[in-house]
Amino acid sequence: MADELQIEVEGADAAAAAPKKRPMVLIGMIVAGLAVGGGAGGFVAGPMLAQKMGAAPAADTAAAHEEEAPADGAEAPVHQLDNLVLNPAGSGGTRFLLVSVALRAPDALVIEEMKSHDAEMRDVVLRVFGTKPVEELSDITKREQFKSEIRTALEPLFKKKNAVREVFFPQFVIQ
Questions:
Q1: Which segments of the chain have a pLDDT < 70?
Q2: Any idea where the domains of the chain sit in the sequence?
Q3: Which residue in 60, 135, 146, 161 is a FRET match for 44, CA 20 to 30 A apart?
Q4: N- to C-terminal Cα distance for the chain?
């Protein structure tokens, strides 16, 4: 009889433990399903959405710069002026700008010419940025204006007209 009571008590404990495990297992399965479904959706739907969203602007950019692309289909070369440091106008030496400027050229011959004028190009860029106060340098809407000013200021250094096709700022830090 005692053995029967002990078996019934153990059976009751096992029966009480089983319902507690089921909700945890069910929650684990739901979480795993969501994770797998989200991952699959990201791998399948993500590239399709990116392609649809990115296709129109890329086409506009390509059309805008079609005349600037090299004839052989290769990407236009870029010359970079790294880590230019200067004190902005009116900062009294308490602030500084760290900037890198990348210049897209129409061909490799212009890149070679840029390499030979590296010091002059750095001086021109420092001169353009050195006249700007911190407030103007901090205004992100002015970046396109800065690019245009730099491009115009650099043109006299080169034999070929439109030697600087595009100007980029891969690094632009104001402290």
A1: 1-22, 25-26, 28-29, 31-74
A2: 2-64, 74-174
A3: 60
A4: 85
Q: Which tokens is 12 given?
A: 């009751």
Quote the CA–CA distance of 85 and 95 in Å, as a whole number.
10
**Residues counted in the chain:** 175
Handedness of CA 68, 110, 153, 119 (dihedral sign): positive
> Angle, to 10 degrees, between the axis of helix 118-130 and the axis of helix 143-154?
140
What pTM was estimated for this model as a whole?
0.57
Mean pLDDT of the chain: 76
pLDDT of residue 93: 87
Q: Note the Cα 117 to chain centre separation in Å.
A: 29
Nearest CA to 78 out of 100, 111, 125 is that of 111
The per-residue pLDDT for 105 is 93
CATH fold of the domain at 74-174: Tetrahydropterin Synthase; Chain A (3.30.479)
Beta bridge partners of residue 101, listed in sequence order: 81
